[in-house]
Amino acid sequence: MTFTDRLRALQRRKQTVLCVGLDPDPARLPRPLRGESNPATAVRTFLQQIIDATRHVACAYKLNLAFFEALGRDGWPVLEATLQYMPDDVVTIADGKRGDIGSSARFYARAVFELLPFDACTVSPYMGRDAVAPFLEYEGRAAFVLTRTSNPGARDFQERRCDGEPLYLAVARAVARWSQELPGTAGLVVGATDAYALAAVHLACAGLPLLIPGVGAQGGAIDPILQVARRSPVLVNSSRQILYASDRSDFAEAAAREAEALRDQLLEACPS
């Protein structure tokens, strides 16, 4: 079964397209956990409680590798433990934004798909096809390629004209071509903060899975997502709005409420 097929099956069964982003900042942990002498231990406890609180409404979790790397030598064990704690009925995404020459890319892919049991990884296309290809060669796994991201600086390069269209559309069309050779292995990262770009990518590459960040703290709108979900699988990510819904002892319950509310807003995007 391809990654895309598995994702659609999970979404259909659980009736959710919500992806919970795990970006654990020790400085923003709830107050009851800030007294822990080892920040890595506090992060591990925090993430496990967030997973327990949201697993019933999430079809995916996106783990931002930078936050684990910043924990130093304790970060890798926390990352492994968090992956091992995941329920069976979700997909996991390594948000590492990898993008290097072919030889390095092969080892990045090996790290996330062999040493760590991730289902997908975010990848930068800036260095071209050979930076992405190793991630597309793993059966049942996938690469989500950065296309039109949700950060303010995205327009610096992604909206530059390339053969008469924005660069992000050229990237999307290239990924669509690559995915024809290995169906079900590629998706696109398109932020909810630019409704026009989201619609344009969808029209150009309908059918490719879309990982959509920018909902919640970044202010992305829901309605444009519901429109593209009619023809393309979508994963809608929310991180800070869910993770840091409360800094008190009720943080897990608050996270569950935020996740449930967002899941409910996105019900129309679920496959039938």
From TrEMBL:
Single GO term (MF)? orotidine-5'-phosphate decarboxylase activity
What PANTHER family does the entry give? Answer: OROTIDINE 5'-PHOSPHATE DECARBOXYLASE
Pathway(s) annotated for this protein in UniProt:
Pyrimidine metabolism; UMP biosynthesis via de novo pathway; UMP from orotate: step 2/2
Tell me what this protein is called: Orotidine-5'-phosphate decarboxylase
The UniProt entry's GO biological process terms, in alphabetical order, are:
'de novo' pyrimidine nucleobase biosynthetic process; 'de novo' UMP biosynthetic process
Q: Which residues form the Orotidine 5'-phosphate decarboxylase domain?
A: 17-255
Species in which this protein is naturally found: Rhodothermus marinus (strain ATCC 43812 / DSM 4252 / R-10) (Rhodothermus obamensis)
* Family affiliation: Belongs to the OMP decarboxylase family. Type 2 subfamily.
Quote the InterPro entries the UniProt record gives: Aldolase_TIM, OMPdecase_type-2, OMPdeCOase_dom, RibuloseP-bd_barrel
Name the Pfam families for this protein.
OMPdecase (PF00215)
